[in-house]
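Let us walk through a complete example step by step. Step one is to write down the protein sequence. Step two is to encode the small molecule, thiamine diphosphate, as a SMILES string so that its atoms and bonds are unambiguous. Step three, shown after the inputs, is the structure prediction itself.
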Amino acid sequence: MKAAQVLMEILRAEGVRYLFGNPGTTELTFLDALPDSGLEYILALQEATAVAAADGYAQASGTVGVVNLHVAPGVANGLSILHSASRAKTPLIVTAGQQDSRFLFQDPILAGDLVQLTEQFTKWCYEIRRAEEAPAALRRALTLAKTPPTGPVFLSLPMDLVTHVVEDSGAPSPHVATRSLPDPAALRTAAETLAEAKAPLIVAGDGVARSDAVGELVGLAELIGARVYGEPVYRRTNFPGDHPLWRGGLFPSAPGVRKALNDADCALIVGASVFTWFAYAPGEPFPPGLIVIQVDDDPREIGKNYPVTRGIVADPKSTLVALAREVGALMTDAQRAAAAGRAAEVAKAKAAYQKVLTATADGDRDRTPISAAFLMQTLARVAPDDAVIVDETASSIRYVLGYLPFKYPGSFYGSKTGTLGWGMGAAIGVQLANPGRKVVATIGDGSVMYACQALWTAAHYHLPITYVVPNNASYAILKIGMLGMGLDSAKRGIYPGMDLVEPEIDYVALARSMGVEAERVERPQDLQGVLEKMLAASGPTLVDVAIDRSIRPAL
Ligand SMILES: Cc1ncc(C[n+]2csc(CCOP(=O)(O)OP(=O)(O)O)c2C)c(N)n1
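Step three: the predicted structure of the complex.
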C-alpha cells in the first residue's frame, strides 16, 4: 500500500473516527487515502479552529485527537491552539503536509521548518525522511501522545513520500497500561499524614479529570472531611460543582492561594501545576509549616515552582484509590467524627456563599443592560442538567463557574492558557465526542472574532451547539486589568484598542451568514425564553446577549 493508505489504516485500527483539518496542495497526496479509510474528515475554515476542534474532541472523548494542517502557514496558524493543548496535556496527533522532499532544499513556496515551528509545544516532533519510516513514526507518535504525561506530538509528511509503496501491517500503536501505582512507603506516609490532619485541604487539578478520577477524589475528600479547591487555572471538571465540599478555584496569585491555605495543616494536591499564575504578585503560596503532598503522573510538575513536602509520581486515580484504602484503615473513630464535623462546617460555609450568589443574580433580575451574573444564572436554570460548557468568556468566567452546576465529570472545558480562538472550535470537538449531551459554548464577543468561522463547521455538520455570547462590545477583562494596575490611561477612562465599536459587530448577522440560527437579547425579561428556544433547536444556534459594559476593578 501507499504510505498514506497505511497511515490511514493505522489511525482506523487505533479507533480514530475523525480527522480534523484544513487542506492545501501539500496534503492532497495524504488525503487521497481518506475516502476508503473509514475516517470522517471534519473541515474547519482556519487551522487554529481545526486544532481547537481536535483538542476539544481529545479532551472530551479521552482518546487522541488527530488534525492535519497545511505546511508552514497552516502549522503557524495552528500554533496558538497548540500552545494551549500542550499546557492542557491533550493527547493530540498534529500532522502537516510538507513540500516535496525532492526540492525542499530550494525553499519552495509554503515550505518551512515545521519541526522547529512545533518543537516547544510538543512532546515529540519529526519530519519523515523515508516513506518506510512513516508507519513506525505514526505508531511512536500515538504511543507518546497517549502515555503520561500525555500531550501533543507533531509529524511532518512530505507530500511525495506518502505516495511511495511501503510494507506494513497497518497495526495500531501498542496498548499501553498507564495506571501506575504509587510507591508503597510513600503512600503509607501520606496516608498517615492525611488520617491525622486536623485541617486538611485538597487542590484538584485538571490531571484529576484526565485520569478519570473525580469519583475517587470525592471519596477521599469525604473520608477526611477536606474542603476542595480547583487549581488556580483549572479548565476541567475535577470535582462536582454542586458537592458541599467544593469551594471553587483558587485565586491565581501567590497571596490568593496563601489566603486559602492559611488555616490548613495539610494540603493534598492532585494533578495540578504548583502553581500557574495569571499575573505577577510577590509572596509565597504555602504558609510555613504546611505539609504538602503532591500527586501527579508528570514528574515535571512535582514542586515545579514551590517546594512540596512529599511528591508521588503515579497515576492520580490509582493513587487516590490506594490512599483512600490506607487512610480508611488508619483512621480512628475520633478522627472520623472530626472529619464529619469539618465536612459539615464546609457545607455550611458553601451554602451561605451559594445564597449570596443567588441573591446577587436575583437582584439583577430587572436590570438593563443584563448583568453577567443574571445571564449565567438564567442559563443554569434552562440548560439541561448534564449540559457540557465550553468556555471562553474572560471577564464573565467567574459567573460561568459560579452559577453553572458542573455536577458531572466532563461538564466543563476551557482554554488552559487563555488563548483566545480556542472555544469556538473546541465546542465542535466536544460536541462530536458527546453526541448525547447538549454543548453550550459561552464565548465573549471579542473571543468569538478570533475563530468565528467555526460557526460554519457547526452548521455544516449539524452540531447542536448553542453559542451564548456575553456581549459588552469590548475587551472588558483588559480594561479591568488596566484599571486594577492603576495605569494612568485607565484612570483617564481611555482604554487603547479595547472597544469593539464603530461599528459594533452584528453577531446575529454573522451567525446567520454561516447557517446558524441566532437572536439578540437586550432585555432581561426576554432572556429565558430566547435561551430556551435556542437550546431546544436541533442545529447550532447563537444567542447574542447585550451585557453591562461598566468597568469595575476586580475584587
Ligand atoms: C490569541 C490571543 N490574543 C489576545 C489575547 C489578549 N486578550 C485576553 S482577554 C482579551 C479580551 C477578551 O474579550 P471578550 O471575549 O469580549 O471578553 P471580555 O473581556 O469582554 O469579558 C484579549 C484581547 C489573548 N489572550 N489571546
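Step four is interpretation. The chain has 21 helices and 18 strands.
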